[in-house]
Write a structure and sequence with these properties.
heterodimer; A: alpha/beta; 2 domains; 4 strands; B: about 475 residues; 23 helices
């Protein structure tokens, strides 16, 4: 009885879902999505394209990686025997290192200073100087280019310089030149001589 | 580099490798892993343990971050591991590689990874730090911390000092301090750089090891080769192993912790190791506060993900929950430590608040999509950073979609989406979205890289298996 029921249901199912009963007059799209061969072919093309692109990606990455690895391995020989200090001088330049050393001598490691940005816009000079001088603490007092006439930043700088418990030293971070160390009294005198501006 | 200074740099690596080896020995879930993966976990556990304890001891007990404390924190797992090894008195052979094909891909990947790692270590030994965020934030903070021997330096705990992102967690700066203190390096010495460089081979070993376990040796080998040839994770000065950014360490901690918890029956020791790694993720970078709970949440939800043998998986919940509880403990401790430390940093979120506005979230979440997608695409097609990998990878994932029908694929997909979602949200509420995408998107990709590349291996396995026209040596 059960076998007969199952056979009947299979018959109904095949009648409902057989290809013959699907509208043959449908669009090309409906023909394609019902055609397993076309789908299989499209899938294999897609997989081949994906693998080919991956292979190209690996090949394209090789020269750049080889160049970067080669440069780093080759430079080991000329740099053998160079001290960490020498490496710093090589990267920053002798003048910049000398300026930083003189600032480090003037401001003790636990000391603090006022930091002026000598650039026209954010170029990172204050970050690099702050990093090189750390653990000395910095108080940022603004950008030199914004301090002309009787502007707010200039007034704030004057206030910072005039604070009796404030740092004695002012460091000016310049984007393309060594940092400059100025005594705050000297800076105040310069400002007074220039009628308030720098 | 003179030999003595090179030794100092390599000694800094040993400072974390030794306690990591000890931890890998006493945690059976790690000890019994294949060699490559075990090495990667040992390194990550060593950094997480040593720097994590120093961070906690300095914050809660005011222990000075000087040589005795650093060596003490590192010595505990070294001794424990040594005792455990002697007591076992037998060498447990790690699982032997199967006879499955795929050695060629693995060997090429190993050679490429080893060469690139060697180049990175040479670069780290030879040259001082020259990147942007490393000097602006992470290493500057490390110098303040080292200067005063505490994670509460005045520059961070007093208002008004010129410090970038004082609320960023200090795990990696503390690790830098540990290296510099133990090696008695000058304040401006770059002896800590090899420590960052080592994260690159660790990242590769993680990807390869988990891809072997989940997708087989051939797909794992090709995936590892693709990963090793990506420029950004290795050489980018804005987040790669050549820099002192915290993104690659975060990617490793997050990916390693997550994948340990996505095994069907994680051992208690593996749960504890995952917790330590996720705790380290919390303390490594601000995004870790989101990624670690995401990893734990995915691990909890894992058995309930619909799929084949769902009932079997649900029955596993009973066995998983103790391991997950053990994983949650160190991760929660990491969150408590971070929040407690931040409580003494007065200008906690100032820089974030200045750069963002939550009012942009709606409808920006949708209206900014085209602009952000275009900018993100611009970063991903940068040949110098990624080659053409991001042009090929989506096609591989689509064409190999059958490979993604496996159970771990869905949680891995969500895990990969988490950092990218954080990045998207950040760019959406940012006042300068273009700038944010330009400076951060690649790093969010890096944070998502471990789950993403394991997914890639799944799809690649399917592709290679079906490509019958390929020579046998290239196929699984």
């Amino acid at each position: 009885m059960l076998c007969h029921y199952a056979a009947t249901m299979r018959h109904i199912g095949s009648a409902l879902y057989s290809r013959e009963r699907r509208p043959l007059t449908g669009s090309l799209f409906s023909f394609l999505i019902h055609n397993a061969t076309v789908l299989t072919f499209a899938g294999s093309v897609l997989r081949t394209v994906a693998l080919a692109l991956l292979a190209v990606s690996l090949l394209a990455a090789l020269p750049l990686a080889a160049l970067r690895v080669g440069r780093r391995l080759v430079e080991v020989v000329p740099l053998a025997g160079e001290t960490a200090r020498g490496a710093h001088v090589r990267m920053l330049g002798a003048a910049a290192m000398e300026a930083l050393d003189s600032i480090r001598r003037a401001i003790p490691p636990g000391g603090d200073y006022l930091l002026l940005d000598g650039g026209e816009e954010l170029q990172g000079a204050t970050y690099w100087v702050r990093f090189e001088l750390a653990p000395r603490r910095a108080r940022y007092v603004g950008r030199l280019s914004e301090m002309s006439g009787q502007t707010g930043p200039l007034r704030e700088l004057r206030q910072a310089l005039s604070r009796p418990d404030g740092p004695r030293w002012v460091v000016v971070a310049l984007p393309h030149d060594p940092a400059v160390l100025i005594d705050r009294g000297e800076l105040l005198r310069r400002m007074d001589a220039n009628h308030g501006s720098l | 580099m003179v030999p003595s200074e090179a030794l100092a740099g390599l000694g800094g690596v040993a400072l974390f490798a030794a306690p990591g080896a000890g931890l890998a020995e006493i945690l059976p879930g790690i000890r019994e892993m294949p060699t490559g993966r075990r090495l990667a976990y040992a390194w990550l556990l060593g950094v997480a343990w040593t720097a994590g304890w120093l961070y906690a001891l300095s914050h809660w007990l005011a222990v000075p971050l000087r040589t005795p404390a650093i060596l003490g924190a590192a010595a505990v797992p070294v001794l424990a591991g040594g005792v455990s090894w002697l007591r076992r008195r037998k060498i447990v052979r790690p699982p032997q590689p199967s006879r499955e094909r795929g050695r060629l891909a693995g060997r090429i990947a190993l050679a490429a990874g080893a060469l690139i790692s060697l180049a990175l270590v040479c670069d780290a030994l030879d040259n001082p730090l020259t990147d942007w965020d490393g000097r602006m934030t992470w290493s500057a903070q490390a110098r303040y911390v080292r200067g005063e021997g505490t994670v509460h330096p005045a520059a961070l705990t007093q208002a008004g000092w010129y410090v970038s992102h004082p609320w960023y967690p200090l795990l990696m700066p503390v690790a830098q301090v540990a290296v510099l203190e133990v090696t008695h390096a000058e304040p401006d010495h770059h002896a800590f750089r090899p420590m960052y460089a080592v994260f690159f081979p660790v990242w590769l070993l993680l990807i390869h090891g988990w891809a072997v376990a989940l997708a087989g040796r051939t797909a794992a080998g090709w995936t590892a080769l693709c990963a090793s040839l990506l420029s950004f994770p290795a050489f980018a000065g804005s987040g790669g192993a050549a820099s002192a950014y915290s993104d690659l360490p975060l990617a490793c901690f997050f990916g390693a912790g997550l994948l340990l918890l996505l095994t069907p029956r994680p051992r208690l020791s593996a749960g504890l190791a995952a917790g330590i790694l996720l705790g380290a993720a919390v303390l490594t970078k601000a995004e870790g506060e989101i990624l670690a709970p995401v990893a734990l949440g995915l691990a909890v939800a894992y058995p309930w993900i619909p799929g084949r043998r769902t009932m079997v998986w649900r029955r596993l919940w009973g066995r998983r929950r103790r391991a997950l509880a053990l994983a949650a403990l160190p991760a929660a401790l990491g969150v408590v430590l971070l929040l407690s430390w931040r409580a003494v940093v007065p200008e906690s979120f100032e820089s974030f608040e200045q750069a963002t506005s939550w009012s942009l979230l709606w409808p920006g979440l949708f209206t900014r999509i085209p602009r952000l997608a275009w900018d993100a695409r611009g970063q991903m097609v940068s040949f110098l950073d990624w080659g053409i990998f991001w042009s090929a990878a989506p096609l591989v994932l689509i064409a190999g979609w059958r490979g993604l029908k496996r159970r771990p694929a869905f949680p891995l997909l969500l895990a990969a989406a988490a950092p990218l979602g954080v990045g998207w949200l950040y760019a959406t509420i940012s006042l300068k979205p273009d700038f944010v995408v330009m400076t951060t998107w690649n790093r969010f990709l890096l944070q998502a890289s471990v789950p993403l590349l394991v997914l890639f291996a799944f799809a690649l396995r399917d592709l290679l298996r079906r490509a019958r026209w390929l020579p046998g040596a290239l196929r699984p």
